[in-house]
What does this fold into?
Amino acid sequence: MSHSNIQIFDTTLRDGEQVPGCKLNKEQKLIIAERLDLLGVDVIEAGFPVSSPGDFASVEAISKIVKNATVCGLTRSVENDIKVAGEALRYAKKARIHTGIGTSDSHIKFKFNSNRDAIIERAVRAVRYAKTFTEDVEFYAEDAGRTDNDYLARVCEAVIAAGATVLNIPDTTGYCLPNEYGAKIKYLMENVKGIEKAILSCHCHNDLGLATANSIEGVINGARQIECTINGIGERAGNTALEEVVMILKQHPTLNLDTNINTSLLYSTSQMVSEHMGIYTQPNKAIVGANAFAHSSGIHQDGVIKNRETYEIIDPKDVGVTESAIVLTARSGRAALAYRAKKVGYELTKLQLDVVYANFLDFADIKKEVDDSDIHQIIETSTIYNQIISA
Ligand SMILES: CC(=O)SCCNC(=O)CCNC(=O)[C@H](O)C(C)(C)COP(=O)(O)OP(=O)(O)OC[C@H]1O[C@@H](n2cnc3c(N)ncnc32)[C@H](O)[C@@H]1OP(=O)(O)O
Ligand SMILES: CC(C)C(=O)C(=O)O
It folds into this structure.
């Protein structure tokens, strides 16, 4: 079976930048946009042009420099938002306007004090107007996760008829269970007239820690685009993490789903975004966290030294990490100590290792991590040091 391509829509510069305290200036946005283009994302959501003169200028500047990806600007279903986005995107080689409106009963009642039919009319008007600036118009049905499927299908049909080519089905509040989100996508694939003229997109939030799982269920059920951010940053608990969905699809070839991402740039891109945004990445973060390829317990270390695959499903080089780390702690065993001692120049016999290991445990019990200089000290202060160096 041939593989289907999943489009990666990166929204680090838009939804990612909605994180409190992580303002980026134009220069930083340009650096990140260039890197995303190199990484191989298909779409860069560069900002929300009507929101401020600074964001307009950033989207315009990004449009001028991006070579391969489509550059996208977000709008509400408001004529002036769309006009301003069209202007900001006018230099892009490939431009997309992303417009939309809330479709859940909660949004319709409380945000818009409106009704279902009127919301469809506003959606259609927005898409038609966006089409006067670019052929590539994506529509988001905000809070689709809590929108009932029949009405959502009606919205989708109406905006496809108006010319939308991508239908974004956001789980805006991160509410859906993976099977529910997958079933929603399946329902739309099976019940929306004209669905063959558009692709469905997953935009999932992480309020319950399900953003990645939901996005994967979405593409398994027929969606062909995932909206995500580097390190999963984004509004509240964040968005689907780009590095996670990309590596899931790569590590599970039986899903027959591919992306265009150059995965060897994932780690350095994560570091770059974290530095510019001033947002620290948790050490246990999947794929790009400092501990993602670090082993500190003896049984695991022994396995990894014998064969990396015993405890690693990803080759660190595939994501741009040079090598796995064997971290020495009080939970480490002899195999790990011998491995690290060899790296700093000591080839220990089995007998020598037993003696040095006893010394090591005293040391490790009072230190969080035993480093290279500690290893020298442990060996130099051991009773058999002379025997080790004369060998
Ligand atoms: C789920 C998401 O992530 S959506 C994107 C969220 N990102 C942002 O909001 C960042 C950019 N936003 C902004 O800069 C500002 O909110 C602006 C410029 C868009 C609007 O600012 P203001 O005009 O001052 O409005 P404010 O933000 O207070 O309220 C939002 C208004 O937009 C309306 N609105 C919200 N979403 C939509 C939509 N998709 N389509 C049409 N109108 C909408 C609200 O109903 C409200 O209108 P009201 O004042 O008539 O009640
Ligand atoms: C604007 C839309 C796509 C969004 O960010 C959401 O619904 O979470």
Remarks:
- Residues 116-130 form the longest helix (15 residues).
